[in-house]
Amino acid sequence: MKIKIPPQINRLVLLFILVTGLFLIVRQFLIPDTFGDLGHYRAASLEDNSDIPLNFAGGAACFDCHEDIFDLKEQDLHSGLSCETCHGPGQAHVNSMEASDIFIPTGREYCGRCHDKNAARPTDYVMQVDVSTHNEGLDCNECHNAHQPWELLR
Amino acid sequence: MGTTKIRTNRREFLRSTATAAGGLFTFFWLQPTKAFILVSREEGVTEGPWYGIGIDIEKCIGCGKCAAACKDENDVPKDPFFFRNWVEQYTVKKDGSVVIESPNGGMDGFTQSVPDDQVFKSFFVPKMCNHCQTSPCVQVCPIGATYDSPEGVVLVDEESCMGCRYCVQACPYGCRYIHPKKNVVDKCTLCYHRIKKDLIPACFEVCPTGARIFGDLNDKNSELIRFLGEKNVQVLKAHLNTGSKLYYHSLSMEVL
Amino acid sequence: MEQHIQHLYEMLSQVEGFIYPNELELQWGILIVIYPYITGLVAGAFILASLERVFNVKVLKPTYELALLTALAFLLVAALPLVSHLARPGRAFRIMITPNTHSAMAIFGFVYSWYLMAVLLLEIWFDYRKSFVVWSRERKGIMKWVYKILTLGVMDISPKAIEWDRKIGYFITVIGIPSAFLLHGYVGFIFGSIKANPWWSTVLMPIIFLFSAMVSGIALVLVIYMAVSYIRRQAIDMKALDAIARYLFFMLILDFTLESLDQIHRFYEAEESFEILSLLVSGRLYLTLIVFQVILGTLIPLVALGTLQLYKPREKIRKALYLSVSVLVLIGIFFMRWNVVIGGQLFSKSFRGFTSFKLGLVGSEGVLMGIVWIVLPFIILAFLLWFLPPWKKAEDDI
Asked: What is the pTM of this model?
């Protein structure tokens, strides 16, 4: 028995094949190059994410030029701190070797960031003082060398 | 008659329970259950590091340097609405209420707001992207613009992201946001650009007390594995089964 | 951008309790309320049309083409608020190029294309094909060619060909019903599958979305039928109108039951998120949820329609009641979407606080733009009714 396919179906199937075919072809051109290499993502994005300039140099970078301060720091309670904890991002300074490119902390407020008395601060991990009353008027640096904080200067 | 019946019933009961217990025991012995806390890597992937994070609440002093350093390292706008990384302060008052604060995300440090005589308990909790193993954010991205890198770091493909914000909705920890200038999703990248150069992420670099531990979950000798072995650890929203790789020690129940 | 940042500082003062720092600004605004509203109208209007075709509900015949064209008009607009809300609209095409099969949202491009082309346009084509052929012969000038192209060259209008049209059209409608469910159901799943958000995460979400979609679609067709009949100064077929209102009533009961079930379940289990969600409903969401969605949008229509099932007043009163009830329902369902989308973002995922939502007037996410998206389908519908007038179709032999 011969089944005659109505012309509507013919025409529509043709249209469907055309549209789908066109879509699949265009799609191939639009898929990014490295897509799917490692998973459902553009693998080149890994490089995009690693190709970013550093702002923090990392603790070891300071050692090469500032070994003396480093040794000083290692003898006292600030030994566990990275230089950049207080001095901020150091990569600019490493690149230019200019003293103006690194931050030198001053002021009671700055040290108070860690050392101000706070009920939430564990006492066994940080010495705390009431910054508003502790030796008022004096800058922290006048009594404490930040690299050797317990070797009091006064 | 009553006594005999009970004895038989009890025997039956004990027998069936023992069989069931024995069967279960054997089943679980033969098939170790995947531990809730320690997630396992994808089958077959054995090479290379697989990064995780440890945070010790007992050591966090709330200096907020981690939050500030992240913004410095990754050029995140300094306004207090976009954080890859922030610190929260919890104060449980003597009347039982809980005050939670995160002024500027903790970027500028904290000052005590609740007077000492009302404080029952207080602590700091640093938060960041948990780099989940079965991350809900990766699951919902419609176009594959966010993904899990081979090192276990959840990253965003800034070239592809169309900013539909579905991933922002899906993250249970509130780690994602739309970058106001780039107009794509932004989040903690575990300083991918640093760890690829064998440095550590900026927030771990500047932590003064070693409250933050960055490490390779595959390295049996890493500080992180030691941390997980020695301490009582917990992840946030464990019931959501996100496979979070951010393990907290000493996380109190007030933290959600 | 500076203005935007300034606006964010202002919003900080509106925060109640504690929220995560990134949660200040809502990610999904009015455009994401409008999108499910529009696709819901599409699905609902289509289902009503399908009732006539598949289930042979002859009394709805006068509204068949009207419902189909309404669905088309709204579907054409549906994608627009969605694309315009993206932070990077130019990249929207990626959803068709690299869809992530794990993501419910990735379905959008495909289900939308499928529904538009394989279901709606095809069904309209099969229904109008004879008319296209006849109009292409009757008209002159450019319209002659337009209709000729629309016939796709299939000019046979013999009884056998017409029979094929009817058969295939029927088949398409049958496929169309689950397709309509998918078109709108997936939106419900988008919300329902987010485990991070307890206001959204429920198994019932796709079902609730679907039933409220059908309610809104039926109400829309009712309003449009009355409006078009009024504009054309044609008498309304009261049997059809009564039937539509009856379907509206029963669908509204089902929708209300499902939504109540969701809330009762949440109330009863009272798990971790219950406290913050109760505060949400009794506080920031009170007006839009309790007043607009429940009382105005559901309860009053239910009582009115229920009464009308038992007691049928004069035609004029019935028409007025049907119209006002439908408008109330349409507003109520809009706010249902609002309460889901906006409500789910007002509370913090820390369960400890709330942020606020400020709806601006201008801008791509403003009220004016929202009105544009809602009005635009009506303009398109007016065009479609001129282009494909249901009442001027070539004689059908039913």
From this structure: 0.91
